[in-house]
């Protein structure tokens, strides 16, 4: 009987230890966008509201991530594809991209000088502070989907998902991220197409 009690205590200790180790792993999330709250009153700021205060750029009063917007960026970039959040690339990446709009991934996306300058300034001011190198180590990365960060975030996505008619390519964020258009890429908002 004493042996049964010791075995039971041993089993209970193993189960408790396993739970202690696994619970933080379940809640651990390497996704910076998980604290974005689209319902927050301060969740959207125009580029003119941001100014030089980087704290106001990154967090609202309640600590949630804010989506910084610019109407020309939203209209011009969003006319052909989703207006990707500036934080997905470095300032250098955005600078290089904006100087090559005459051959923007095979298309002529040229803009008048004033609009190009406004959008370029907006993107660079709100860019990632981290270097977003491409998977092959070349800086600056021009395709978000080729950055090490993107590949790390999407490493569990099967190749067949990218080829699905509902997804088509890694650049189609809204195919899986249901709130991508509002700037939220939280994992709880992901719905994989079937």
Major sheet details: 2 strands, parallel
Based on the structure, what is the oligomeric state of the protein chains? single chain
Radius of gyration: 22 Å
Number of helices: 8
* Strand residue content: under 5%
Shape: elongated
- In whole angstroms, the N-to-C terminal distance is 54 Å
The percentage helix is 25-40%
Low-confidence stretches: 25-64
Structure description:
This protein has 194 residues and is mainly alpha-helical. It has a domain of 41 residues. It contains 8 helices and 2 strands. A two-stranded parallel ribbon has the order 1-2. The radius of gyration is 22 Å and the shape is elongated.
How would the blueprint of this fold be written?
Elements: H1 2-27, E1 44-46, H2 47-50, H3 54-58, E2 67-69, H4 71-78, H5 91-99, H6 113-125, H7 148-153, H8 159-163
Parallel strand pairs: 1-2
């Amino acid at each position: 009987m004493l042996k049964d009690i010791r075995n039971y205590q041993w089993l209970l200790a193993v189960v408790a230890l396993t739970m202690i180790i696994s619970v933080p792993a379940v809640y651990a999330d390497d996704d910076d966008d998980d604290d974005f709250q689209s319902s927050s009153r301060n969740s959207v700021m125009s580029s003119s509201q941001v100014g030089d205060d980087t704290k106001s750029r990154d967090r609202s009063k309640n600590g949630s991530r804010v989506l910084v917007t610019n109407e020309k960026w939203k209209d011009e970039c969003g006319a052909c594809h989703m207006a990707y959040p500036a934080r997905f690339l470095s300032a250098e990446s955005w600078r290089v991209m904006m100087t090559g709009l005459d051959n923007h991934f095979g298309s002529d996306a040229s803009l008048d000088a004033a609009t190009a300058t406004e959008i370029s300034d907006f993107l660079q001011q709100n860019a990632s502070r981290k270097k977003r190198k491409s998977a092959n180590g070349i800086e600056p990365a021009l395709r978000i989907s080729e950055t090490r960060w993107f590949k790390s975030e999407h490493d569990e996505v099967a190749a067949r998902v990218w080829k699905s008619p509902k997804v088509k390519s890694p650049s189609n964020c809204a195919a899986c991220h249901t709130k991508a258009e509002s700037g939220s890429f939280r994992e709880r908002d992901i719905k994989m197409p079937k």
